[in-house]
């Protein structure tokens, strides 16, 4: 990770780690959590943003790429594969695998892109062989889609998977989303 002694919030973290090919991912919601957390830049801390229905949990660590702004106005989302869940606010160096391209229809009927970068923690042993989307378990993308369809339905929204694209496509999206 890039060293910066004056960092006070996730908004100040360089989105690219030391080798410029891996990401610095800030975890909002750990794998296995029913609680959805979200970084609140005005407060300078994480806030509880919702609670999932009984029996429903986040399937992977869920976070964001700092210093980015996605089409939905929030930092670019990341689904992070890691051997064990980490805590909210943890910064994890990760290797970019690809991107899940998706559309989300809001409660008012407007539709916007809400893509999720797929990444593997560089420290992961279990997922170390995953380099591109085709290396993922064949059911994983279907299960992620099912999770986000159910998650959004509970919030009065709709989620539609558009496709799973390469690391190069993910990198272009990250660079396009940079705000600093």
Features:
alpha+beta, 14% helix, Inorganic Pyrophosphatase, 2 helices, five-stranded mixed β-barrel, 180 residues
Describe the structure concisely:
The protein is of the alpha+beta class. It is built from 2 helices and 9 strands; from the N terminus they run ββββββββαβα. It is globular and about 40 Å long.
Topology diagram in text:
Blueprint: E1 22-29, E2 35-40, E3 45-51, E4 61-64, E5 77-81, E6 91-105, E7 111-113, E8 116-121, H1 140-154, E9 158-165, H2 167-177
**Strand composition percent:** 25-35%
Average pLDDT level: 91
Point out poorly predicted stretches: none
Main sheet characteristics: 5 strands, mixed, barrel
**What would CATH call the architecture?**
Alpha-Beta Complex
Element-level helix/strand string: EEEEEEEEHEH
Helix content: 10-25%
Number of domains: 1
Query: How do the strands line up in the largest sheet?
Result: 1-4-5-8-6
What name does the CATH topology carry?
A: Inorganic Pyrophosphatase
Gyration radius from CA atoms, angstroms: 15 Å
Describe the 3D structure:
The chain has 180 residues and is α+β, with helices and mostly antiparallel strands. It has one domain: Inorganic Pyrophosphatase. It is 14% helix and 34% strand. It has helices at 140-154, 167-177; strands at residues 22-29, 35-40, 45-51, 61-64, 77-81, 91-105, 111-113, 116-121, 158-165. The strands form two sheets. It has a five-stranded mixed beta barrel. Strand 2 and strand 3 form a beta hairpin. The longest helix has 15 residues, at 140-154. The model has no long low-confidence stretch (mean pLDDT 91).
């Amino acid at each position: 990770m890039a060293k910066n002694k004056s960092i006070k919030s996730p908004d100040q973290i360089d989105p690219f780690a030391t080798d410029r090919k891996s990401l610095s991912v800030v975890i909002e919601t750990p794998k296995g959590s029913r609680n959805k957390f979200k970084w609140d830049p005005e407060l300078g801390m994480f806030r509880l943003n919702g609670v999932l229905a009984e029996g429903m949990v986040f399937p992977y660590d869920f976070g964001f790429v700092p210093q980015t702004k996605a089409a939905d106005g929030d930092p670019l989302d990341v689904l992070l594969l890691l051997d064990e869940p980490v805590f909210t606010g943890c910064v994890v160096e990760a290797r970019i695998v690809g991107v899940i391209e998706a559309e989300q229809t809001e409660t008012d009927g407007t539709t916007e892109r809400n893509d999720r970068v797929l990444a593997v923690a560089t420290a992961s042993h279990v997922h170390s062989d995953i380099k591109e989307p085709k290396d993922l378990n064949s059911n994983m993308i279907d299960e992620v889609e099912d999770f986000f369809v159910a998650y959004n339905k509970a919030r009065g929204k709709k989620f539609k998977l558009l496709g799973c694209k390469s690391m190069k496509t993910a990198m272009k999206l990250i660079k396009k989303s940079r705000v600093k």
